[in-house]
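The authors assume throughout that readers already know how a fold can be written as discrete tokens. For illustration, here is how one protein appears when written out as sequence plus structure tokens.
>
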Amino acid sequence: MTTAPDRLPAAMPPADCPLCPRLAAFRAANRAAHPGYHNAPVPPFGGLDARLLIVGMAPGLHGANQTGRPFTGDYAGDLLYGTLLAFGFASGRYGRRADDGLTLQDCRITNAARCVPPKNKLEPQEIHTCRQFLIAELEAMPSLRAILALGKDAHDSVVRTLGGKPSRLPFTHGGQHDLRPGLRLFSSYHCSRYNTNTGRLTTPMFEAVVAAVRAHLDALTG
């Protein structure tokens, strides 16, 4: 594992990050196949002063890897951003484009791994290698009070990032864990089309989790 960069608020892998050879090779192949795509590590979206951080696992090939903004360009973004708009975590209109004018309110969105993986599957070492950037991000968010992890892999990565063990803080849809004083982890099935098409995740199920996050943050300021 390459030495971690300085943990500054802007800590991000470079566009040609070499840390994960398999992901770097896939990124190069996509640049040839889809020259109009972002095809680089996808930066987080939203301010560092947010109280809520939403963590996915990795960019989608024809979603964030195309547009350069997390959860933008595919169905997962339709459900995620529509729900964030409904609960006051976003304003504007989501248009499946990074330039659609949508803004986040008291919310930031990132991924545990910043590059798109082949077949949408990351290897454990790749998650571990990219964790340095998630650590830097958490350290740069002084107002952070809630994390929403989308999917088990994201949940486990967040728990490990904060020094916990997934076996002691297991993933469940709708589950909540206090990671440290003043910081609560909420978890949901990933809002992918695969989960919604199979009925594993419905819109009301996802909205219920975001509603719980909203209620938690509102109670802190009520």
Q: What stands out?
A: The first helix runs from residue 21 to 33.
